[in-house]
Write a structure and sequence with these properties.
- By secondary structure, this protein is α/β, with parallel strands linked by helices.
- The protein has twelve helices and twelve strands.
- Strand 1 (65-69), helix 4 and strand 2 form a beta-alpha-beta unit.
- Helix 3 crosses helix 4 (80-86) and helix 9 (242-264) crosses helix 10.
């Protein structure tokens, strides 16, 4: 991994093995070569996923809406979806949800609601990430002292800072075709509902980029830094406030799901498969215990995740899980899939219920 991302200060990371042991990820993918040269842009990866949706059952050139989410667009302007559309050759309505992990499912919700309202007949939604260039060693300053390593050994959650993200995040893309009818062949997934909730009014920023965090919890934008500070403070790298993350992200997911069950009359026992977007296997048992403690236990045999094999691909992760289980041959008519997508940036959650038909 360091042969691609480089070594900070020219030395191998001493925390890498600790972080990898706790996140459980065995593979990840980079859209760069060992010299750091880009092999694909974020937009190009999204287009590759979108083109894979084309079939005799539906030609993607006839789609009404394109909605693409990402944590790391190739540029701040034009929008990410506009750049994706620029690589295609047909007209469409566009929307670009911003944010982090939830941006991909926000894109899906926009397409879903447009079709549900009768405003559109079809939508292509996607999530894609090009994170590896932001994880290159030259963007990081400082080293790893022995005190920090000792703290990391005692509390794995402390790894959710800059060095953690270097050993977890993957590049990649996934896309979905939403129609106002089932597939003519094989199974389909019917979206029953998609629920989202932000907790930004309760918490300060947890994960951030293109900025630095001030002592009072506010963010200082890259626009307020000098070019010299961009490097000195690793302004453009992704960072995470572990103090906020470890104590809040899991309980908020349990709190929101409990509200959804009451609102939607959802019986957890009716769920066939639970697809949680986990940033690390470190959280798997914690999520299980949280749901169990709230009377919403989901047996482990119902969990489906591919984190260990693809890594954390942010907004694309839920699409990659859906594609894998959809193509696995294990789904049968009537199965219910509960999706969970947390986002630590300013703490938000999305859940969705899909039925196999």
């Amino acid at each position: 991994m360091e042969s691609y991302l480089g070594m900070i200060g020219g030395k191998p990371s001493r925390s890498r093995s600790i972080v990898l042991r706790n996140n459980g990820i065995q593979k990840r993918y980079y859209a760069i070569d060992k010299s750091g040269k880009l092999l694909h842009s974020n937009a190009q990866m999204a287009v590759n996923a979108i083109n894979a949706l084309d079939s005799s059952d539906f030609r993607i050139k006839n789609v009404d809406i394109i909605a693409c989410g990402t944590s790391a667009p190739d540029q701040t302007l034009p929008s990410h979806t506009a750049m994706v559309h620029g690589l295609l050759d047909f007209p469409a309505e566009l929307i670009s949800p911003s944010g982090a992990c939830c941006s991909g499912i926000h894109a899906m919700k926009y397409g879903f609601l447009s079709i549900l309202a009768g405003e559109s007949d079809s939508a292509i939604t996607a999530g894609s990430e090009l994170i590896s260039p932001m994880m290159m060693a030259h963007l990081f300053e400082g080293g790893e002292d022995s005190a920090k390593l000792e703290e990391l050994q005692k509390n794995p959650a402390i790894g959710f800072e800059k060095d953690f993200l270097r050993w977890m995040l993957s590049d990649g893309a996934g896309a979905a075709l939403l129609l106002n009818r089932p597939n003519s062949k094989g199974i389909s997934l019917k979206i029953e509902w998609i629920e989202g909730r932000s907790y930004a009014h309760r918490f300060e920023t947890c994960m951030y980029s293109s900025s630095d965090k001030e002592p009072d919890g506010s963010l200082k934008s890259w626009k307020q830094h000098t070019p010299k500070e961009w490097t000195e403070k690793a302004v453009f790298s992704m960072k995470q406030d572990v103090k906020l993350l470890s104590s809040n992200i899991v309980p908020l997911g349990g709190e929101f799901l409990e509200e959804i069950c009451a609102k939607r009359g959802l019986e957890i026992s009716t769920i066939s498969y639970f697809l949680p977007h986990l940033s690390s296997n470190f959280f798997k048992q914690k999520v299980f215990d949280e749901l169990k403690g709230r009377g919403m236990e989901i047996p482990e045999e119902k969990w489906f995740t591919n984190l260990t094999q693809v890594g954390n691909v942010g907004s694309a992760s839920i699409y990659l899980m859906l594609e894998e289980i959809f193509s696995s041959g294990r789904l049968k008519i009537g199965d219910k899939l509960l999706l969970m997508v947390p986002e630590s940036a300013r703490f938000s959650y999305s859940y969705a219920l899909l039925t196999v038909c």
